[in-house]
């Protein structure tokens, strides 16, 4: 039988007091029971831990050597218990957050992650850009824990979304376009334009519906940065989130409002419906409190 935690605690108490009666009182056991624990520990270790006489108790050389390791072992166990409690409360762990580029432009991702890190400094957060159509599969496979996306997106069984930022779509167009002379552009004015479409095409399709035309989509480069690069080369327009205009300036690209009722855009947080990880649940609760 190996030395058990009870043996270590009894040894440390006697080593601290160098007195069996006082150590027994501290431990809340009878002195004979304490003597039995120490004798059992010595038998299991195969060494004598204390020199004992009727008047004194002193550590042996073996006891001195064992003392430091025993203290470290108990400290390590105490830290382990503390970390387990932190993890159970969601204050320790790791979260992987996936995001589409436009979520960064809105600022909601940064604000939530910064606030969460300040409240839960021992939770490690990994960040990675994802392709929006892959978000659901990445969540189900456990490769990410949370995804910041722009709805609508494919939503497999077991995945839910929650809106965390509301925005509106605007037009990005070449600076030399005749349409740039207008402060706001009516959907019908875009009838003859060619469109570059980002990952989220809903804004483009809604503008075309309101203008009663079918959008002439000439490119789907993916990220908003790539979309703006296309627009800057001239000839094409794009329907992009308004938040983009507040933080991204590209030569030869102008932004204009869409006339009439705003074309809504959102950033949503996607997550597993039955999330078990306490740290992830803590993040979801924190994000909800910031909404």
From TrEMBL:
In Swiss-Prot or TrEMBL terms, this protein is called LysR family transcriptional regulator
Q: Which species is this record about? A: Caballeronia arvi
Q: Which InterPro entries match?
A: LysR_HTH_N, LysR_subst-bd, WH-like_DNA-bd_sf, WH_DNA-bd_sf
Residues covered by the HTH lysR-type domain: 3-60
- Note the Pfam families from the entry: HTH_1, LysR_substrate
**Protein family according to the UniProt entry:** Belongs to the LysR transcriptional regulatory family.
This entry carries the following GO cellular component terms, namely: protein-DNA complex
Establish whether keyword Cell inner membrane is in the entry.
no
């Amino acid at each position: 039988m190996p030395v058990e935690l009870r043996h270590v605690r009894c040894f440390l108490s006697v080593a601290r007091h160098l007195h069996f009666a006082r150590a027994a009182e501290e431990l809340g056991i009878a002195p004979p029971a304490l003597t039995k624990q120490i004798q059992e520990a010595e038998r299991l270790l195969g060494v004598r831990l204390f020199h004992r006489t009727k008047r004194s108790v002193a550590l042996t050389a073996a006891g001195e050597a064992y003392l430091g390791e025993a203290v470290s072992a108990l400290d390590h166990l105490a830290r382990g218990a503390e970390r387990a409690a932190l993890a159970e409360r969601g204050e320790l762990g790791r979260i992987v957050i996936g995001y589409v580029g436009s979520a960064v432009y809105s600022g909601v991702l940064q604000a939530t992650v910064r606030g969460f890190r300040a409240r839960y400094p021992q939770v490690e957060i990994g960040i990675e850009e994802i392709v929006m159509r892959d978000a659901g599969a990445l969540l189900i496979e456990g490769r990410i824990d949370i995804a910041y996306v722009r709805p609508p997106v494919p939503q497999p069984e077991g995945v839910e979304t929650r809106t965390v930022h509301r925005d509106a779509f605007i037009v990005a167009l070449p600076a030399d376009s005749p349409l740039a002379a207008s402060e706001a552009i009516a959907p019908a004015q875009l009838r003859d334009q060619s469109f570059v479409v980002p990952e989220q095409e809903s804004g483009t399709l809604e503008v075309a519906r309101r203008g009663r035309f079918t959008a002439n989509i000439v490119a789907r480069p993916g990220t908003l940065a790539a979309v703006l690069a296309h627009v800057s080369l001239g000839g094409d327009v794009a329907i992009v989130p308004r938040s983009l205009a507040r933080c991204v300036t590209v030569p030869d690209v102008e932004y204009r409002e869409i006339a009439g009722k705003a074309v809504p855009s959102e950033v949503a947080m996607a997550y597993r419906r039955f999330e078990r990880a306490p740290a992830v649940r803590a993040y979801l609760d924190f994000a909800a409190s910031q909404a």
